[in-house]
Amino acid sequence: MSIRKLKADKIFDGRNFLTNKILLIDENAVVAGISEDNNEDDVEIYKGILSPGFINAHCHLELSHLKNQIEEDTGLVDFVSKVIRLRNFDKEEILHAIDVAEQEMYNNGIVAVGDICNTTDTLVQKRKSKILYRNFVEVLGFVPQFAQSRFDGIVQNVYEPFFAEMPDTSIVPHAPYSVSDEMFALINQHSEGKIISIHNQETKEENTFFKTGESKFQDFYQLINTNIDFFQPSGKSSLQTYLPKLNLPKQILLIHNTQTSEEDILFAENLAKENGQQLFWILCPNANLYIENQLPNIDLLRKHNCTIALGTDSLASNHELNILSEIQSIQKYFPHLPKEELLQWATLNGSQALGFSNLFGSFEDGKTCGVVLLNEDFTEVKRIV
Ligand SMILES: [Zn+2]
User: Fold this and answer.
1) Alpha carbon distances (Å) from 38 to 20, 35, 73, 384
2) What pLDDT digit, counting tens, does each position of 103-139 carry?
3) Alpha-helical runs (H) found in the chain
4) 54 near 12, Cβ under 8 Å?
5) Ligand 1 centroid to 314 CA: how many Å?
6) Is the overall model pTM greater than 0.90, yes or no?
7) d(Cα 29, Cα 34) in Å, to the nearest integer?
8) How confident is the model at residue 73, as a pLDDT?
9) In angstroms, what is the span from residue 59 Cα to ligand 1's centroid?
10) Which of 12, 289, 342, 373 is most enclosed, with most CB atoms within 10 A?
11) pLDDT of 41 strictly over 90
12) C-alpha of residue 289 to centroid of ligand 1, in Å
């Protein structure tokens, strides 16, 4: 069997930078080890850093046709209203945009994606894809009496077609402000031992909705002719209101977290520990800057040893599907963060968040994690394997 021997200024193995080492990859793209550099002559030599392929822990591939359709800095409530209004696009256009966006991710060194699905529009693409997907079929529904029929409809029309081909698929809540207690209960019952995700605390309004009941979401429901007079604010933050309703999943991916307080972090991590769950804090900084011009308090998450991974969100709220661009944005606002840590969020942690750490995320023997080449200042990425 022929083995490729790869060398660069540094090898990032998923956790640390290594120097004077050679990465061994077999002809099936499987990692065959890391060896000492003995100046052999059949070594491919690169300038920069070799890293395992990137993991995009949060995306909505099916919204790719919405690229450049929504202006920046609208705030989340207006953003969500616009996405709803833009739902009726030509099917061919949607499928073409999905194809183009996926190729973009591949070229940007992304090997696996956690993808939100409200439709089966991405199924054809995923069948033939070189990228591995964990599909999160999303449900919304804030009116309690429609919970069961909504849930059953999504199971039949979206979940089952995905599940038939990709059994790792799970059903997930969209966001705290769009899912009723009854719907949370149905999702929770369906999630025992599974990985789920939820858009968490993406705007101040979300916390206000639960704390006082007077937020832009009340106006939003009026706008879509939905009576929510039944709703009783809990007086607590969004996270502290809904997280206790999700005790059965084994892993929960909390997406965004721009308005998560220190108290929320401690509450969430303690509750997860009690329930034997693992939390992943998924950051999508470019989408946060696009929609609300806000960023999560990354220093606070690090202070409490939260496990962080990265996502791009969709092209409705991002100019590209590129994990390296997310890293660049974090570096701009948090220049003190060690490069190794940022790369670990983009690789190993992402693979664990999606339950794919047996395949991706680090240069450990037997993994098919892909190999990407980065320059030292993190402005360019190229696929090597
Ligand atoms: Zn999202």
Assistant:
1) 9, 9, 54, 22
2) 999 999 999 999 999 999 999 999 999 999 999 999 9
3) 76-85, 91-107, 123-127, 147-154, 160-165, 181-190, 204-211, 216-223, 238-242, 262-275, 285-291, 298-303, 323-333, 339-344, 350-353
4) no
5) 7
6) yes
7) 14
8) 92
9) 6
10) 12
11) no
12) 13
Q: What span, in angstroms and rounded, lies between the C-alpha atoms of 155 and 41?
A: 56
- The pLDDT score that the predictor gives to residue 21 is 97
CA of 58 to the centre of ligand 1 (A): 6
The 10s digit of each residue's pLDDT in 228-256 is 999 999 999 999 999 999 999 999 999 99
| Ligand 1 centroid – CA 311 distance (Å) | 9
Q: Which two tokens stand for residue 90?
A: 């030509």
Written as six digits, the tokens of 29 are 């793209």
What is the CA(131)–ligand 1 centre distance, in A?
A: 19
What's the 46 CA to ligand 1 centre distance in angstroms? 36
Residue 107, token pair as written in the block = 């070229």
**Cα(113) to centroid of ligand 1, in Å?**
12
- pLDDT for the residue 115: 98
Q: Which residues of 218-239 are buried (b: 16+ CB within 10 A; e: fewer)?
A: bebbeeeeeebeebeeeeebbb
Q: Which of 361, 168, 167, 313 is CA-nearest to residue 251? A: 168
Distance 312 CA to ligand 1 centre (A): 8
Residue 70 CA, ligand 1 centroid: distance in Å:
15
Distance of CA 6 from the midpoint of ligand 1 (Å): 36
- Reference 62, options 196, 162, 200, 188; nearest CA is 162
CB 273 within 8 A of CB 252: no
The structure tokens listed for 298 are: 């990354």
Please state, rounded to an integer, the average pLDDT across all residues of the chain.
Answer: 96
Evaluate whether 300 touches 293 at the Cβ level (below 8 Å).
no
| Ligand 1 centroid – CA 17 distance (Å) | 31
The tokens of 35 are what?
A: 């060896």
Question: Given this model, what pLDDT does residue 40 score?
Answer: 84
What size, in residues, is the chain?
A: 385
Distance 364 CA to ligand 1 centre (A): 31
Structural domains in the chain plus CATH codes: 1-52+361-385 (2.30.40.10), 54-360 (3.20.20.140)
pLDDT in tens, 299-353: 999 999 999 999 999 999 999 999 999 999 999 999 999 999 999 999 999 999 9
